[in-house]
Amino acid sequence: MAYGVEQQPDLPPVTDWVNDWDWLDDQWGSNAIDIWNEVREHCPMASTERYGRAYMPVTMEAVTQVSHDTEHFSSVWVNVSRPDAPRSPAPPITSDPPDHHGHRRLLLPAFNPKNIATMDDDLRSFCRDLIADIGDRDTADAAEQYSQHIPVHGICRLTGLPESDADLFRDWIHRNFQLAPRDNRIRLEVMTEMGSYVDRLLQDRLANPSDDMLTMIANAEIDGEPVDWNLKVGYVRLLIVAGIDTTWSAIGSGLWHFAQHPDQVARLVAVDNDDMLWQTASEEVLRYYAPVTMARKIIADTEVAGCPVRSGEQMLLPFPAANHDPAAFENAEEFQLDRARNRHVAFGLGIHRCVGSNLARLELLVALQEWLRAFPDYRLDESRVTTWANGQVRGPRNVPVLLR
Ligand code: HEM
């Protein structure tokens, strides 16, 4: 298949989010919640022609419908990009039924709650070491010096990926999510670099097996048949891109939020770590600041929120927008530390619901507890800039704070 390799021309800033939305527009990162709320006041689904025709539903009802409908919506395209973008499989996230189930079953056991719970002490001491590195300084960057490191540690412990390659993983993630949707050359470069890196790792595990997930993947079989090598490489590429900046963004958003709400910090540090308030608070971070927006390729004509959509077009799946729908949440616009009914969809819905949610929840909870207890008086440093990643995984990449 021939791919267009030229870069999409520079696009003008969005002025009409209902008819011309763009998830790589500079306004998206810091303003996405306002954007979704504004669109929802006009209609349940926005559209754009910037990546071919692509839709953006913003209600819980529409997002739920698309997530559960694998007959009209395929996961072969999981982000809105140029229609001629090079894509390569990273199952289970890029697979449809019936193949999806076997791939998912392979990855699930490592992420079961019992296995993940054993990581609590290790994650906690990793967070404490990061805090100790900050020492008695008066200022810090809570994203650069803290949140970005925790998920890399978690995923490397769980899979056997080398933590010393953390900078490489973050570079791939940045190029893949921030630059590649508009630039096929970058997408191809990242796919090739990641592919040969993972290929080497898996070949090494075949030669030198160890007791880790990479060895399991290198030898993976489904129903007694060996899995295609290219798909095994895809599993690991997926674990790298799904397991790092997602939770990094959730932790960073939580720290950015609490840096501006000292009253909520005081309530949290006053209770024990196993108090329900910590649970409801981190679920509310996940609802309010849900980082992950997915997408689908439309494979058969149908209707969403009363609008006809056609085969070949793209459908954004903004779970974070559904989390702000007032039809689904009481006082959706309020961040409530003790929100009791919170059926948020930060981890998705339906057959592709997040495999790593137990790990993500533990990392988020531990990271918040350790930071807030270490720096109960920290606050946002308004004199420096908070920067946000836009697109598929939205979250702060710099959170400048005053610590005392
Ligand atoms: C706060 C952190 C996280 C959030 C918000 C999140 C969100 C999501 C969402 C929304 C999906 C659904 C995809 C779809 O419908 O197309 C998903 C799937 C997935 N996530 Fe996560 N995720 C997080 C952390 C993680 C972690 C730590 C891992 C571990 C590697 C992980 C691995 C996966 C995998 C493998 C899938 C694909 C599942 C499937 O297709 O059956 N995620 N995630």
Folded structure, characterized:
The chain is α+β, with helices and mostly antiparallel strands and 404 residues long. The protein has a single domain, classed as Cytochrome p450 (Orthogonal Bundle). Helix content is 46%, strand content 11%. It has 16 helices and 14 strands. The strands form five sheets. A five-stranded mixed β-sheet has the order 1-2-10-7-3. Strands 4-14-11 form a three-stranded antiparallel β-sheet. A two-stranded antiparallel ribbon has the order 5-6. Helix 9 crosses helix 11 and helix 14 crosses helix 16. The radius of gyration is 21 Å and the shape is globular. The N terminus is likely disordered. It binds protoporphyrin IX containing FE (HEM). Protoporphyrin IX containing FE binds next to helix 3, helix 11, helix 12 and helix 16.
Features:
11% strand, binds protoporphyrin IX containing FE, 16 helices, disordered N terminus, Cytochrome p450, 46% helix, globular, alpha+beta
Question: How would you concisely characterize the structure shown here?
Answer:
The chain is built from 16 helices and 14 strands.
